[in-house]
Amino acid sequence: MIIDAHHHFWTADYAWLAGDLLAPIRRDYTVEDLRVHLRAAGVDRTVLVEAGRCADEETRSFLALAAATPEIAGVVGWASLTGPALADTLAAHRAGPGGHLLVGVRDQAQAQPDEWLDRADVRAGLATVAGAGLVNELVVRPGQLPSVARLAADLDEPQFVLDHLGKPRVAAGAEGLTEWRSLIAPVAARPNVVAKLSGLVAEADWAGWTVDDLRPFVETAVELFGTDRLMYGSDWPVCELAASYEQVMEAVVTILGGHPADLFGGTATRVYQLEI
User: Which end of the chain has a smaller Cβ tally under 10 Å, C or N?
Assistant: First the structure.
């Protein structure tokens, strides 16, 4: 059972897609588009992740879509961690179509200041999510990794999932690796943090990346987290800025020398409590 633990859908009108840089992925992406890639890459199930609309209606629509799509085993929806009605919002999502497929919550921490995760109101929101039995998913920049380490140390009960290995500067080569390793090591030392081996091609040179550019980041992640605290994600369609769905999978498999069962499915099944 191979699981892609991180992909998106969106429509061309998402505000963050504006601008020439993202023009190659400014279109509608559908279930049928995804199915072509799943078949080609041999992927059995997926986890659908919020796509930056930052609206409750996106989460509701994704849950309903997942309920009608056998390949989607879980949804990480968006919710404002500082919203005054967070608990009620989560309860409403679960009561709606596909609500049983809500497995986690992600706010857009990467758009916030470096110390945002240290704020009392943000941590209260994270505790509310964990109290609802959901995973707290974190999408952050490298400069925010120290706050992730502090968060995981202070709140040692909830399960945290770190997206895209914290977005290392892959395009910076050795400099980016040295910087990222020093920042990710304290995060990896926390047993309540699981990381996604995803999004690396988006942080590489889009036009000229190679497997060897990704290799030291993947190998360091395996060294620090172990495959039992890593899960594979395509980050499709974001990855199409630099690579196809199949090329991303092939690159990771090449570096790892195969498909470790936990990294390619077991970790995601356990952490998200997927019913497969």
Answer: C
- 217 Cβ partners below 8 Å, 6+ apart? 165, 168, 170, 177, 180, 200
Do residues 262 and 225 lie in contact, with contact meaning Cβ atoms separated by under 8 Å?
no
Q: Contact 152/146 with Cβ under 8 angstroms?
A: no
C-alpha closest to that of 104 among 168, 159, 43: 159
**Domain that includes residue 216, residue range:** 3-272
Residue pLDDT, tens place only, 242-272: 999 999 999 999 999 999 999 999 999 999 9
Tell me the pLDDT band of 166, cut-offs 50, 70 and 90: very high
Q: Which of 62, 56, 51, 64 is nearest to 7 (CA)?
A: 51
Residue 20, CB half-sphere, CA atoms under 13 Å: how many?
0
Q: What CATH number is given to the structural domain containing 35?
A: 3.20.20.140
- Map residue 3 onto helix, strand or coil: strand
Rounded to an integer, what is the distance from CA 121 to the centroid of its chain? 23
